[in-house]
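Shapes recur. Our protein:

. . .
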Amino acid sequence: MVSTADATQSGGVSDLISDRLYRILTDRIIAGELQPGSRIDPAAIAAEFEISRAPIRDAFARMEFEQLVETKARYGTFVVRPTVRDIHEVCQFRKAVEWLATGLATNDIDRQVLRDLRREAEEALVAAEQGVYEPFFESDRNIHQTIIATTGNSRLLRARAGVEPWVAWLRVLGATGVHRIAGSTVRHLEILDAMLAKDVEAAQAAAAVHLDEVEAWAVEDFQRDREPSVLAADDVQRTVS
């Protein structure tokens, strides 16, 4: 059951439930418990969490706005089937937001924070070489989120948070190997070193190259694990829908 015990005066109980349900369903999509193309049954969700349909509709609306699900009239709500186009759009959006954030944050971010992030990135690479990948994912999140948080720009923060589920999902859908982690770590260190030197231009350039490489790698890994004919059909369907 989704608890309502921690509801606050700033939001209603229904808002609280829908927020928590959104996180639960999004996590299930990212983890593969809800597969691309699968239907999400609101009656089953209502029974599982002992809730009414109202917060379910709210959670679905938020997920649809973030393009994680799509509702088809008379058929229901389905997990979207990611396409190469999605990878391009998510990575291009990240590049625009994070290039700007890197420039804004370079002169303001605490130098010790940068040194800590740098040490964490180096330790994560060592762990990945030993087959332990979670430290890299944590380091990756910390670097990008810390840079954006340093700007103090609430709109940038919300914009980046809006694609975070997609960033995590694409990481799971695509293969992640030590060679990818090593390549990302090189760019992370370049970004952090440029920021330590307060070199805005170099930091932004490294951030732009990093996200271009992430896009290229994600497309390559995604396509390798899927039939070309299926990818083409999905891209056409999403383009004309």
Strands lie at 39-40, 69-72, 76-79. The longest helix spans residues 200-224. Residues 3-11, 228-241 have pLDDT under 50 and may be disordered. Residues 16 and 125 are 38 Å apart (CA to CA).
